[in-house]
Design a protein that fits this description.
The protein is globular and about 50 Å long. Strands 1, 2, 3, 4, 5 and 6 form a six-stranded mixed beta sheet that branches. The protein contains three helices and six strands. Helix 3 links the parallel strand 5 and strand 6. The relative contact order is 0.17. By secondary structure, it is of the alpha/beta class. Helix 1 packs parallel to helix 2 and helix 2 runs parallel beside helix 3. InterPro entries: PI-PLC_fam (IPR001192), PLC-like_Pdiesterase_TIM-brl (IPR017946), PLipase_C_PInositol-sp_X_dom (IPR000909). It is an enzyme of class 3 (hydrolase).
Length: 167
Amino acid sequence: FLMSSDNSVFAPEHTKIYQDMIHPLSHYFIDSSHNTYLLGHQLTGESSIEGYIRVLQRGCRCVEIDCWDGPDGRPVVTHGHTWTSKILFKDVISAIRTYAFKASPYPLILSLEVHCSIEQQDNMSTILRNQLGDYLVTGFLSENEMALPSPTELMYKILLKLEFNGS
């Protein structure tokens, strides 16, 4: 009952896109996920790409990726300074690439919380560019941008939101 439409705080007509989607991206609420990789407890739980697959299939448009130095120069995703398991950053990006636009063509934001060394940040950059290709926004979409592009202009695009926490 708690998750049923009979108990929803949202108007039923708002379950589908009902706005015109031509205003700057910052004019909209964005369905976001925190600690997306965790399937259970945030101190001892399992990390899995299944968390990303699940939220993307439900239409989430912003997912969090906590990146840490991994073995052999391969960055990992985990909840730092805890006993949660680790998954390879490359595997997370691969899953995101596969499921990013299954539920919605509107832009996906990757919220990267980066705790990696410069070397592993370089590896992350290579992985992002190689796996996401033309989906990844790497510059301005037009020469005269004075505001953020609209969701319509960013359809089938992936944006990065970066937070660096040193290493």
